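Dear colleague,

Following up on yesterday's call, I've attached the two folding results inline so they're easy to grep. Please treat them as preliminary; we haven't cross-checked anything against experimental data yet. The first protein's sequence and structure tokens come first.
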Amino acid sequence: EIRDMSVDVASKLREFAVDLGMREDIFKALEAVRARGLTCISPEQERFVDRCLRDFRRNGLALPKEQREQVTSLKKRLSKLSIEFQRNLNEDATSVAFTRDELAGLDDSFIDGLKKSDDGKYLVTLQYPDLLPLMRKAVRSDTRQRMDFTNGRKCVPENVKILEEMIDVRRELAGILGYKTHADYVLEVRMAKNAETVMEFLSSLRNRLAKQAEEEKGILLALKKAICEENGESFDGELNSWDFQFLHAERKSREFNVKEDEIKEFFPMETVTSGMLEIYQELLGLRFERVPTEKAHVWHEDVTLYEVFDGESEAFLGQFYLDLHPRTGKYGHAAAFPLLPRSHLPGEELNHPAAAMVANFTKPTADRPSLLKHDEVVTYFHEFGHIMHNICTEASVARFSGTSVERDFVETPSQLFENWCWNTEVLQRMSGHYLDKAKKIPAELVESLIRAKNADSGLLYRRQLFFGLFDMTCHTSNESVNTEELWGKLRKEVTLVNHATGTNPSAGFGHIAGGYDAGYYGYLWSEVFSADIFSVFEKEGVMNPQLGRKLRRLILAPGGSKDASECLEEILGRKPQFDAFLRANGIRE
């Protein structure tokens, strides 16, 4: 009931935002103010006026009335489609039934934690805590294939129809507004500026990764052949969509001695949370204080609330929520959501920011706490980086608060913080065996993780390129897109992994239906910047408090009140470079 009400309210708010963006009276008033000069307001407020005028023009306020009405109608249609797409994903309850034999390779604790069907089979859902362990550890290829096929059919056909209509509406809207493509419309206000720049970036990285990706494919196919012989299965000579995650995990285990099951025993969620919060506080000069359960107004008993204070002045900065376990109808991925922006206008009280981190980490059982795999620890650090970006903001205008930066820069701080999860000292600080908290993760286990960090990096980055190219191809096309055909074609060409016939995973690609349209490339684009910034920490110390506070002041605090390129050059003392990204990810040119 509450979710239904939330969806209804969200729809109304989005429609209101569309109407507000088409207010001709406000547009003309701002134009008049701008024409008279803005000497009496702050640079940030002047930037706000300029951004508002730019947005009004991009919304078509300079067009004739008939076309403005068409723009409004199309924007409202997009809003409704986006909400419907995400709602379908959130409410998907698909599961696949397996016998215990079919789940060979998975931990007994995992299997015993699954619900059962009426005929006694184990039900594996498409939520990450179920899906990922199966795809990485199930020995039987037919088990992984069934799961991969079902996941690839999630929300098909309903979300396919929605997404393809959204692509058509966006193309029509861009044409009315005078842009060559929807991508060019979106990118005009990003760091990249236009579709040509993005396609050149993706093409250049694709070429840099080509040789390495082919070599890695050969390694994985040789491993697959050996495993097929071990298990008495026939070898088809192909790298299939249901093979990659399993073979990648097996390679890390066999070649680099990464013991995932042993490693996660040292990362109980409560211990990781405590250690992670300590590290962020120390690095950024903050103090967190958990609000007692009886005083915390939360939406579910699993949710915790924290207040944030400056470590020196004790000034209150804001608050954040942690919502870390899966439940029916909940957002199915990991993400950070700004709830309230910071604002402080002359003569008004300071409004403090609030944000929520949502994840789907495995729930504790009767005999075990929630244990995080190392990649989940990385995800935790990443999403909490977004929380800090929202809370540490010093923007005075709500429009520029926190993560309200160029979309192809917004991932830079959170990707930067991932690097702390590859440092032995840091990992030991936030570890503690679930049976004995004093027992830290052994250095040799951390070293195995670090050695394996760049295993299959060529293929993994080609996978990211694939998502970016799919997104850009959809939004630079001059005609309707058959998403199933495009997905299958690009999947094989770019990732070197076979597409599962009869599936269309774009139906689950929430990014391009929910705000990352013509923007997925930003993950790779911003990672170049995050690697460059971390190279400074590598030189001066990853827990250097002076550098941490500099990061807070120059990258987190401005929000959108300054251009991202200016913030980058301030902290680097130069223009960004590509070298650190290639070096950090083991990419050989």
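Below is the second protein, in the same order (sequence, then structure):
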Amino acid sequence: MITTRIGLHKTSTYRLLSHFVRIYNKPFNPFTLTKHTFTQNLSTIVLFKSNKRYFSHSIQPTMQNENEENTTKQTANTQPEINPENTPNDAPPGYMCISEGSAKVLYKKQIEVFYNPVQEYNRDLSIAVISDYILSQSQENRKRKGPIRILEALAATGLRSIRYAKELPDPKVIISNDIDQNAVDSIKLNAEYNKIPAEIIIPNQGDASMVMYQNRTPDKQFDVIDIDPYGSPSMFLDSAVQAVVDGGLLCVTATDMAILCGSHAESSWNKYNSIALKGQYCHEAGLRTLLSFIEAQATKYKRYIVPVLTLSIDFYARVFVRVYTSALESKKSASRLSSIYQCIGCETFNLQPLLKVATKDKSIKYNASTLNFSSTNCPHCNKTFRVGGPLWNAPIHSPEVIQRILTRVTEKPSLFNTSKRIIGMLTLANEELQNQPLYYNVSSLCNVLHVTSPSLAVIKSAMITAGFKVSEAHAKPGSIKTDAPPEVLWDIMRCWAKLHPPKQPLPTSPAHFILSKEPTIQADFTLREDLKTSNVARFLPNPSENWGPLTKAGKRGNEILVENDKNEGGQGSSSGGTVVVTPNMFNQNADRREKNQGKNGKKPKRSRVCKAFLNGDCRKKNCADLHELPPDFVMFGTENENNQNNNNNTDPNVTNSEKGKEKEKEKEKEEKKQRV
């Protein structure tokens, strides 16, 4: 009757009761309790289940202390009163102050809203790009008058919106949206805490896609839309390309780099309508896959994109594109997309455009492209190709925008805590060959031939001497982008293999087919003096160990916030405050690895003795049980049976294995008698 009243199955009820015993550390008998007490205790267990507090050691065993704890939680959930005279470092009770840039954000000790300090570089870079966009609007004769309208579709704590309000040029209006009521309350609280006028930051609770769909008319569209989800942004892009003004800026983050880099081909097709291949160039291919999907969403509405800045950063991709409206340019979309053919042996790739555009006498003709290679096997190692794509084959950066941002950040490095990293990565992106999609990794090429890897400067010198252009790639250290065809690249590697001969490769290996051909050019590996060198650090180390993504909000335990005076890049904070981070955020990745250590390894052998071995008839090839008798071995069975066996064993020198052999001989004799 009790289970029917509270709507739980009998099995579920006893499971909850077992958790009650685990929490309160005392025996529990539901049949001795009254109906009221049972319902009260059971609701307490359900409450603990929803908060994931099964294993908490701070819960007292009395109902009175539990009620006090619930009262404390209710008090903590209410917003504190903000004193206008408070300085930014004076946080209300129950809150900690997170300082980033010029913003001070209140953060509860019991985390309810997602915050990741790793993304500070993302936010700094976004402010730099959006600031350049706002300053360039006067030169581009902006059609719509009034302030710049910015939408942060997934605001969480509101930290990004507050930094936009305090650090972007005026005038602007920021709509800070989130579907979670706790996040909206946090945005209101932090906006008031930072003394930002209500007309600049407008908190809004709603589904991100619906908010953008409701603002897709020209008079309501946004100048800037920032989408920074936890995982894939694919579900928001259809509404985003409609809700941004003509020539507006769309900022997109994707943290599912494993899918974009080809670890799960089926998921990449479901989310991005593209087959991502896993290879040495996978990080840039993931960026181009994301751009191709944004382009595909825009062309449905006679729009097209122009990438401004596209970067692969740590564990995520950050893309800045301008969205324009033009029926003519949207028809050329397929010419900016390509299928990719990758060799399964040497990983040489070949891009095949989907469409050819021919212009003649002011007329444009669109034709399907033809294959630019004849054989189905790789001409270098004789292996087969795998097919992927489509992906973006046009430039992914705007050199003019990058140069303006570099000039601004270099002149004022105190603008951001991560200025040193911004300068290094944008310098590398600006030096890339814009018309050469994807890159080659020198270590991967040497791994195919089983030769020692040369320095990057040596390979670059050989290519420049051979008459080709070459640059480094920002997506992966030790990688090069070049306009040299794959034949020339492998010829240079053959010349290197002659100077550093490898061991004899297998006849079926890619190295055998590649090295069996003579090089058509003679590579010169002398270091050139005209190689561009600068003192800019391009690839900076991570500020701390286990630097990476965090779990979703609501899936973490309580974390203690501490102060960290060491800023990234060795530069001081522009706001003069302390940077507050949670050390537990980065330790959880290490804990997860330690927990899963050896999880997929070989299972240890069981410690029990094989029963069939004792009987002398174990016929298993790889038996999991022991075939040896430990010194403290006790025969299987009850104590009486063991005592009887001990009494029957008159000879103490006869071991159990010898007894098994005797039984086996007796069985063989009986079988012979039956045959006779």
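For the second protein, one point worth flagging: The mean pLDDT is 78.

Best wishes,
A.L.
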